[in-house]
Every structure is written in C-alpha cells, then in structure tokens.
From TrEMBL:
Binds 2 heme groups per subunit. The keyword Oxidoreductase applies. InterPro entries: Cyt_c-like_dom, Cyt_c-like_dom_sf, Cytochrome_c_Peroxidase/MauG, Di-haem_cyt_c_peroxidsae, MauG/Cytc_peroxidase, MbnH-like. This is Cytochrome c peroxidase. GO terms for molecular function: cytochrome-c peroxidase activity; electron transfer activity; heme binding; metal ion binding. Pfam families: CCP_MauG, Cytochrom_C. Its cofactor is heme. Heme c 1 binds at residues 67, 70-71. SUPFAM superfamilies: Cytochrome c. Heme c 2 binds at residues 221, 224-225. One of its GO terms (cellular component) is periplasmic space. The keyword Nucleotide-binding does not apply.
Length: 378
C-alpha cells in the first residue's frame, strides 16, 4: 500500500511527458527551482511559443523591434546602451536590465516594487506610452490579427494552450513570453564550475584573489550581491517568501540632501517615502561582464569605473561638490584599492560569464530569425 503514491506520481509524470507538458528545468542539482505562477505552469510548448514571440518584430506597432531589440542574447539579454531605445527611437528612462535568471526575481524593473510577475511586466514594453517601447497601446486587435495570419502561430498557440483551444489573446501571449523568459537560466560559468563543481582550476589565480575581495569586509560587495545570482533580490522554492533589496548607492547627490536627478528618484517614486530617494533594485551579477554600461542610467561605462569611480568613492557623488549622498546604503563607505586589486576583482566578475549559455542563446536567436525570413519570403 505504501508504494501506491509513488506509483501514481510516477504514472502522472510519465503521462505528462508523453503529452509534452512536463518541463525539465535546465539547472544543476545545487540550484533551487524557480517558482512560477500557479495559473501559468511551465511547459515546453509555451516556452517554444514564447521564444518565437520574443524574437518577432511584429509585436511592435511599426514592426521594427522585437522584445529582443532591448534584450540581446550576446549581451546576456541586455542591450549595450545607456538607456533603452524604443521602436520609434524614443529613449527610455532606464538602462535595459539583463534577463538572465529573471525567473528568480521577486520584483521586476529597476524601482517598481509592485510589478511582481513577468506576465505583468511584459505589458509595460508592449503598451507603455511614456516612453514608447513597442508602441502597441490601443492596437491589441492589430497584434492578434498579425499573429492569426501567420502560418505557424495558430498551431503553436494550440499546442501551448490546449485548454484555451489555442486562443490568441493578451493572456496567452504574455504567459508564453513569460515562460520563455523564465527558461533563460545560466549556471555554467567558470566560477560555478570552480565553486560548485569542484574544478579548482576553472578560474584564474587573479579571479580567486578577486573572490576574496568580493566576499571580504573591506569592499563589502557581497552584502547586496549575495546568493546564487549575486543579488539580494531572489525568490525560489527554497526561499518562497523572497528577499527584496533596493539601495541608494550614492550615485548622485544633487542638493547636498541626497536628491537624485528629476525623474530618477527610484523607489521613492512608488512609495512616496523620502527615505527611499535614490533606491534601485540590486541587479544580479551573472554575465555582468557582458552587460555594460552599468547602473540604472548606464552612466558608468566599465566594471573598472564602477569599482574605482563609484564604490571606492563612497558613491560617485562623493567626488562631487555636494559630497557623498547622506541617504546612501550603510555599506557604501568607500575604500582604498590598488590597480592590481581592481584587476583581480574584475577577473572574478568576468569569471561569472556563462559562455555556453550565451552561445546557445545566440544560436537560438539565429534559428528564430531564419524562420521569420522564410515566412516573409513566402
């Protein structure tokens, strides 16, 4: 009798596999499984549909920009620009955040604590008007008509959403893209192989010295950049309540009282609390060497600048006439650092690059682009 639950569970898993609905997370045993919304479980079919949509420029009103326009695979799904640029050429207010391991984030965007799911966040680039990104506000039916006229999408939607009979709607579209974004998982960097895989030579001696600096009390990087994704923003099955870290790092001090530039007050914009001035969500550091420029406004061009011109100076504002930001995090106290130590710290950060993930993502983008060209030629 005691074996029945095991047998039933195994039968259920087998049936799910046969139906193509079981999703196997591509993560190592040491990494916890992401949490997903109960109304949008992962399936291979949804990921496949979301992947096609993510790379499809027809999701923008003028058909010039896909989601991938601001989230390029070779840049760990960031864009290499200081500020994101929408389909009309309008610049955004923030640097485009990398999507790698976004499945582990309890809140999305740089500063809005109220956007807690990818299904919800996707609406911003699609329909936002300040600034315009995809420019689809008021054009939902046009978007659905484009997808229904495609030779592949009706079939892909039916495979992904059989219970909805393949309905092409905003709900199914956002759920598919969210599923694809949750599949962007990177856990095979040289540092992973060194720290978790027992490969003692996977990173250089310089990177090992940089690791000691990163996790040491003099630089204090790890207080905010901890956990499996090097951020204090994470939620997963081993930490279901989640951790949400927003910090003022002292990048600006416009008035000597801690003010950030107009329109860039960070978390304060949403909480209306003066103490939240200049607080932004701590970004993860996986593949960080590929996601320059840095900070919420892309105002620091290199990792060396981030270390030497910002954190070592009690925040970059520490070198301004107004002095260090009085509202900055208690961990931003500045430090002395040599050229050799900067090189070691950067070597450690570079060891977080998962080249296999990048290469596979670039190859996938090429396949999707090829499909789009074939359809356009028919």
């Amino acid at each position: 009798m005691k074996r029945w639950p095991v047998v039933i569970m195994g039968l259920g898993m087998a049936l799910a596999a046969v139906a193509g609905t079981r999703y196997d997370w591509p993560i190592p045993a040491w990494a916890p499984t992401p949490l997903v919304p109960k109304d949008n479980p992962m399936t291979p079919a949804k990921v496949a549909l979301g992947r096609a949509l993510f790379y499809d420029k027809r999701l923008s009103a003028n058909q010039t920009q896909a989601c991938a326009g601001c989230h390029l695979p070779d840049k760990s799904f960031s864009d290499g620009l200081s500020l994101a640029k929408g389909s009309t050429g309008e610049l955004g207010k923030r640097n485009a955040m990398a999507l790698v391991n976004v499945a582990y984030l309890p809140t999305l965007t740089w500063a809005n604590p109220n956007i807690t799911s990818l299904e919800q966040q996707i609406l911003n680039p699609l329909f936002g008007e300040h600034p315009i990104e995809m420019g689809m506000a008021g054009k939902e039916q046009l978007l659905f008509e484009r997808l229904r006229a495609d030779p592949d999408y009706p079939r892909l939607f039916k495979q992904a959403f059989p219970a909805q009979k393949g309905e092409i709607s905003l709900k199914t579209l956002t759920r598919a893209i969210a599923s694809f974004e949750r599949s962007l998982l990177s856990f095979d960097s040289p540092y992973d192989r060194y720290r978790y895989g027992g490969q003692r030579d996977a990173i250089s001696p310089s990177a090992k010295r940089g690791e000691q600096l990163f996790f040491g009390e003099r630089l204090e990087c790890y207080h905010c950049h901890g956990g499996i994704n090097f951020t204090d923003n994470q939620i997963h099955r081993m930490q279901p309540l989640g951790e949400r870290g927003f910090h003022n790092t002292g990048l600006y001090n416009e008035d000597g009282q801690g003010a950030y530039p107009p329109g860039a007050s960070g978390l304060r914009e949403f909480t209306q609390k003066a103490a939240d001035e200049g607080k932004f969500r701590t970004p993860g550091l996986r593949n960080i060497a590929l996601t320059a420029p840095y900070m919420h406004d892309g105002s620091l061009p290199t990792l060396q600048a981030v270390v030497r011109l910002h954190y070592a100076q009690k925040g970059r504002a520490g070198q301004s006439g107004a002095g260090p930001n009085p509202l900055r995090s208690q961990f931003i106290q500045g430090f002395q650092i040599t050229d050799e130590e900067v090189a070691d710290l950067v070597a450690f950060l570079e060891s977080l690059t998962d080249q296999r993930f990048i290469d596979q993502s670039v190859a996938t983008q090429a396949v999707e682009s090829s499909k789009r060209k074939e359809h356009a030629a028919r």
